[in-house]
Automatic annotation (TrEMBL):
Site entry (Raises pKa of active site His), positions: 143
Family in the record: Belongs to the GART family.
Provenance organism: Stakelama pacifica
Catalyzed chemical reaction(s): N(1)-(5-phospho-beta-D-ribosyl)glycinamide + (6R)-10-formyltetrahydrofolate = N(2)-formyl-N(1)-(5-phospho-beta-D-ribosyl)glycinamide + (6S)-5,6,7,8-tetrahydrofolate + H(+)
KW Plastid (keyword) present: no
Protein known as: Phosphoribosylglycinamide formyltransferase
GO molecular-function terms, A-Z: phosphoribosylglycinamide formyltransferase activity
CC annotations in GO: cytosol
Protein residues bound to N(1)-(5-phospho-beta-D-ribosyl)glycinamide: 11-13
Residue positions of the active site: 107
EC number: 2.1.2.2
Keyword Transferase belongs to the record: yes
Entries under PANTHER family matching the protein: PHOSPHORIBOSYLGLYCINAMIDE FORMYLTRANSFERASE
Database matches in SUPFAM superfamilies: Formyltransferase (SSF53328)
Amino acid sequence: RRVGILISGRGSNMAALVEASRGDDCPYEVALVASDRPQAPGLIWAADAGIATFAQSPKGMAKAEYEAKIDAALRDAGVEVIALAGYMRLLSDDFVARWRGRIINIHPSLLPRYKGLDTHQRALAAGDAVAGCSVHIVTEELDGGDVLGQAEVAILPDDTPESLAGRVLIEEHRLYPKILAEFVKR
Ligand code: GRF
């Protein structure tokens, strides 16, 4: 299966997906990495790794026009499944409908807890004993579609949002390639 990855920044989850795709018997290949931020560090990493990249800033454009460009780039690359990896922009209902059931995302919380931003800070403030990450299907509702897999991380007494984020990120890099591989096979 041909996968397109949408990023906005660092792209460490994207890199984990690319690296896993090069392992034996991986059922997906990364056909395109696209970003809404032309300066995203992840784009440079992807290009260095020999992956086709596409950058399109939404500045000065209607959302529909911006998304049409992303959509065209994905289709031109033969993409069948989209993996969001730190893509910081809400997809429109129209875009989600066009790719219904074929977009997945990784989110740094144990959904349905802590949809949206600042997940680690909110887990610490709530006094939770565990945090984690979730891979889910993307629907019109933010961080709301069916959960495909999760990994848990114990919260330590001295954790800060940053220390917790670092340990959760390690689990993200393990979880996302595994769930994407399962997802493209189903
Ligand atoms: C990750 O924590 C991911 O769960 C969230 O945004 C962050 C992206 O990090 N959606 P990276 O760009 O993959 O390094």
